[in-house]
Amino acid sequence: MQSFSPTIRWAGLSHVGRQRPRNEDVFHVLEEQACAVLADGMGGHRGGDVAARIAVEQACAWLQPRLADPAAMLAQRLCEAAEQANLAVLAAAERERGLIGMGATLLLAVLRPGRLIYASVGDSRLYRFRSGGLAQLTRDHTMLQDLVDGGMITAEQARLAPFRGMLTRALGVMPGVEADAGEVDLCTGDLLLLCSDGLTDMLDDDTIAGLLAEGDTLEEQAAALVQGANRAGGRDNITVVLARAD
């Protein structure tokens, strides 16, 4: 199997938070192929943890033999993986009626020399931290983000709104799902953050950037983010995956 990760370091951490009875976040890193996948089970639905696990397992299984494809094809492959994960979640709900209504977000990222390719469904986020600046690369698929984009409310109002978790796209809802894909440059020293909304609902981007700037290792940075979200209330499960291109 071809390896793409001789200069990429990874760290991941998931925590139930302070208010949820179980952890419905799931992540997996395919280190040899420089790929990370994260899913957040839809809160309030039966089987959110099941949906997240199925989504990650199916996406990884479908992607593994295809990650050796040319970099120009990988954005399409990530979107196809999201479609396969969606079908798997729907099929599981059909087999077991107690799981009807379960769903999940999905975030996928692949690193290649000088490039980062990604795709997302839902409100799990991907950030790039470079030279002290934090840039959000994904767009939240939420009603609030639609209102922000339409100029109806500000980003700060959206961050404080009580219904910020209402998704406009997720796995397990419809037979078809559209993932947003993107590609950006990747420089030596860049730090990538994949996270569930349990982090971003508790900490704003400036706070996240400050915690990333303070840590000496990826493990310390991941722990600081989770601890910070818990100190701020820990209302949801918190998952972070970090990757650094050295």
Structural description of this entry:
Residues 7-245 form the PPM-type phosphatase domain. It comes from Pseudothauera nasutitermitis. This is Serine/threonine-protein phosphatase. GO terms for molecular function: protein serine/threonine phosphatase activity. The chain has helices at residues 48-63, 74-95, 143-149, 155-160, 197-200, 205-214, 218-231, and strands at 8-15, 25-30, 35-40, 106-112, 115-121, 125-130, 133-136, 180-185, 191-195, 238-245. Strands 1-10-9-6-7 form a 5-stranded antiparallel sheet. A 5-stranded antiparallel sheet has the order 2-3-4-5-8, with helices on one face. The chain has 246 residues and is an alpha+beta fold. Helix content is 32%, strand content 26%. The chain has one domain (8-245): 4-Layer Sandwich (Phosphatase 2c, domain 1), CATH 3.60.40. Helix 1 packs across helix 2. The longest helix has 22 residues, at 74-95.
What descriptive keywords fit this protein?
246 residues, alpha+beta, Phosphatase 2c, domain 1, five-stranded antiparallel beta sheet, 7 helices, 26% strand, globular, PPM-type_phosphatase-like_dom, PPM-type-like_dom_sf, PP2C
SSE topology:
Elements: E1 8-15, E2 25-30, E3 35-40, H1 48-63, H2 74-95, E4 106-112, E5 115-121, E6 125-130, E7 133-136, H3 143-149, H4 155-160, E8 180-185, E9 191-195, H5 197-200, H6 205-214, H7 218-231, E10 238-245
Antiparallel strand pairs: 1-10, 2-3, 3-4, 4-5, 5-8, 6-7, 6-9, 9-10
Helix pairs in contact: 1-2, 6-7
Widest β-sheet, arrangement of strands: 1-10-9-6-7
Q: Which architecture does the CATH hierarchy give at level 2?
A: 4-Layer Sandwich
Largest sheet: 5 strands, antiparallel
* Shape verdict: globular
Overall pLDDT confidence: 94
Cα radius of gyration in angstroms? 17 Å
Q: Percent helix among the residues?
A: 25-40%
Tally of strands: 10
Counting structural domains, the number is: 1
How many helical stretches? 7
CATH superfamily placement:
PPM-type phosphatase domain
Secondary-structure element pattern, one letter each: EEEHHEEEEHHEEHHHE
Q: CATH first level: which class?
A: Alpha Beta
InterPro entries: PP2C, PPM-type-like_dom_sf, PPM-type_phosphatase-like_dom
Organism: Pseudothauera nasutitermitis
GO molecular function: protein serine/threonine phosphatase activity
Protein name: Serine/threonine-protein phosphatase
